[in-house]
User: Fold this.
Amino acid sequence: MVPMAPSITKIRSFNASSRFNGFPSLVAKDMPDSSEKKRPFVAQSAKNTRKNTKFGTKGERGGVNRFNAESDWASEHKMALFSLGLSPRFALIYGAMNRNTRILIWLAVACFMACATQKASAPAISPKSLESLPLPHQSQQVAFSAKAPVYQLQILHNSDQESGIRIFEDLPRFMQALETLKAQEPNTLVLSSGDLYIPGPFFNATRGKGDIQLANLVGYQASVLGNHEFDLGEKALSKLIKSKKEYPGVTFPLLSCNLDFSESILAGFWEPNGLEQDRPPHKIFPSIILQAGGESIGVVGVTTEELADISAISGVKILPALEHTQAEIDRLKEKGINKIVVLAHLQQLRLELQLASQLQGADIILAGGSDSLLAKATDRLRSGDTRKGDYPIRVNGKDGAPVLVVNTSREYTYLGRLLVSFDEDGVLTGVSDKTGIVATDANLPAEYSSTPVPENIQAELAKIKSRIIELDGEVVGATNFYLNGERQTIRTEETNLGNIAADVYQAIGHRLQNDKALSDIEGVVSLVNGGGIRASIGDIEPGPLGKRVPPLANPLVKKGPGDISLLDVQNAFRFNNEIKAALVTGAELVAWVEHGVAAYALGVAAGRFPQIAGFQFAFDPQKESGNRVKTLILTGKKESQILVKDFQQTDLSQKTFLLITPSFLAKGGDGYPALSNVIHTFERREQELIAASLKSQKSLSMADSSVRDDERIQNLMFRQEAILK
Assistant:
C-alpha cells in the first residue's frame, strides 16, 4: 500500500486543527483558519461547566499558532520526505530549493499519492512518518530591539519534576549541570514551571516531604503551582508548604495569579497582593519580584484552568488565565518592573503559545505540564527523544514585542538554559548562542560531570532510596516485551500496558457481575484514562535508536531481566486509583468514548484518551468532535454486538452495561460525564489488583503494536477499519 502524502497544511504546522474552544479573545485574529467554526464540547463534567468561557481545555482541539520561520522550513521537511520513501540524496537537494519550488514539489507529491490511493486502500498518514514530520512548534519572525544591550540574564529552569525512580540517576547529573552554569553567569534565576511532585513510590516514601526538600536544595527561587500539587487535595498541600520540626516546608514562593484561595484551607498561605522581596517561604503569591545583578525581575505564575477536572481541589476558585496574567503584568509594570517572566502551567504548549501572543509586556514564558521537549537543532537529546519545537520559540506578543517560550521534559531529565539580553528599556535585544538544553543522562559532557554533586542532595536521595529499594526486590511478574506507558502513545493510541490495565479492570467487573447476579446487563466493559498511567514498565537502551526493552535486571535485589517488581507497578500507576462500577446505557458508553477521543489531534496528547477492554471501536479524528466513533462493538460473546455502525447508534444504545473505571473518571475527572448510577466501590485499589494479576500469569508476551495494527482502538487516520468486515 502507498501512504497518502499529508496535506501541505498538515506538513507545515503538524497540528492540523486550528479550532479553539475557550476564551474568545485568545483566538488571534490573524491566525490561519481562525474563522472556522469553533467546536463545542461533546460532554460536560457535571461539576464543572466553565470550560467554554475560559482560556481553554486540556487537550481540546484548539487554535494553533503556526510558527513557521522561513529558515527552518527546509531542514524540517527533509525528514518528511524520508518518511514518504524518497531518497536522502533528493531530500538534501530539496533542502537547497527555494520555498515556492518546495511547495510545488509537495503539491505534485500530494497529487501523485492521492491518485495512487484510488487503487490502494491505504491510511491517510503512515505512523512511521509521524516521527519525521516537521516540528509541531516553530518560531515566528520577531524583531528584537536594535538598541544596545545593557543587561544579560540567565534563566536555568525545568518543569514537571514529578519524581519517579529515575530521579536517583538524573538529579545528581542535573545538579552538576546546574552548578556549572550558575557559576558561569552572575545574573541567574533558577525557576520551576510546576508539578513539583506526583503521588507514586518516590512521593510515598516521605509523603512528599522528600520531593519538597530536594526542590529546596535545588535552589528554586520560585515555582508556579501545577495540577499535581493538588492531586491529594488542599490539606495535603498545606502540610507540605508549612514547616514542622525538622521539616523546613517550601522555602521558595509558590505562584499563581488565577487561583483564589480565599475560601480554601490554603488561605493562610495566600498573599494576593504579592511581596517585593526575594524568596519568602511558606507563601503563595500571584507574582514575585526577584533580584539578579541589581536588576528587578517580575515573575508571574498562572495555572491551568482545567484544575478542577484533573486534580482534587475543593475550596480553590479558578479565574480566567489571560485576564489575570495580564492584570498581574500591568501591576508589575506600574511598579517600574520592565522585565517580566511568566511561569505558565497550562498543560498544553499550544495554550502557552497562544497566551504569549495575547499578552502585552511579557518577555519570557516558561511552559509546563505538557512535557513538550523544546531544543535547538544542535542540542544533544537523550536516547529515543525527539524535539517538539525550537528552543526558544519566538512569538510576537500582542504589543508586537518579542516573547520567548521555552519548555523541557519532566523528571529532571533536562535542564533548560535561556541566556538573553535586554536594552535600557527592558526590551529583549537577542538570545545568546549559549542558550539550549542539557540532557542529564549518562552521557553528560565532562564540562558538567566534573562538577561535584552537592552533598546535601546526595544525602537526601540516599535517605529516600533506602526506603524504596526493597520494593524493586519484590517481583510480581515478568514480561518479554517493553510495556508502553509513554505519554505520547498512551494518550493517543492503544498500548499493551493500557490493555493490561483495562483487562484487570474488566476482570474484576466480571467477578462483580457473578457476585451480584447481574443477569440483565449486556456486557462488562472497562475504560481507563491514558493520563492515569504515568510511566512504562521497561527500559530504553542507550544509543541513537533508543531501543525499548523489558525491565533490566537489578542485581542488588536479585531482580532478573524482564522481571516486573512492585516498584515498577507503583511507578507506572502512581495514582493508585480507587475503582468504581457503574451501570450505564449503551448511549452513555458511547458518550464516554466520544469524549475520550474528542481531544485527539496530531501533536496533542490529552490525558482523557481511553484505554479499553470489553469492546472495540474505530474513530475518525477528521470528523467533528462528538461524532467521531464510526464503529463500536461489544466483544466477549460468540456473536459481536454492534453498538455503533456508520456513526449511528443501534438499538443496543438503550441496553444496560456494567462499566468499570477509575473513581477519578466516575466523578467527572478529565471532563468525562459524571456517572449517576455507581453500584460498587472496590476495596482493593489499582496497584494491588494489577500486581495480583501479574502474579497469576506466566511471563507476558504482549508486544506493543503500532497504531496501524491496533485492534481495540482503530484510528482511521492511519488505517482502514477492520472491525466490521
